[in-house]
Prior knowledge:
The relative contact order is 0.18. Helix content is 38%, strand content 17%. It has a five-stranded mixed β-sheet, sandwiched between helices. The chain is of the alpha/beta class. It has six helices and five strands; from the N terminus they run ααβββαβαβαα. The protein has one domain: Trna Endonuclease, Chain: A, domain 1.
Amino acid sequence: MDPFSDEPHPDSVVHATFRDWIIDLKDDREFEELVRDIYDRLDWDTQLTQATRDGGYDIRLEKMGLSKLVEVKHSPNIGPSVVREISGTALAENVTGVSVVAISFTPGAKEAATKIGKNSHLNVELKDSNRLHRLFKRTQMWDLIDEYAVEREPIDDGVFGW
């Protein structure tokens, strides 16, 4: 059962939406580890790069002769430069595809992914928080909610008298 509702509840100590939950992860590395764990559950062989000087990508995936690079960004509104950079790295690494995982993307990023996909052999995927949530549900990863849980303090906005 999916513990996340479709509507945010900012006054709750519970993570009301999946997007809230991933935004509240403590740092970029924890988000990278969560994405790696999702791909592990999807039966990809995963290799998480070191935290710094990672060679232009965060995770390398291998499965049945396919190889992909994944760039993980723990922020919203990722633009086209990230898509272009990981695509350039993918061409240098001779892989079949790339995924950029982030909270959300700008229209320019989506346009860049489409153009690169049409003009090269690369399969370029953008996975925002909604697509990541669908993968999370497909892999039934509810056990990871506790592993990656972040305790939140109630918001004192004066309405509830805290």
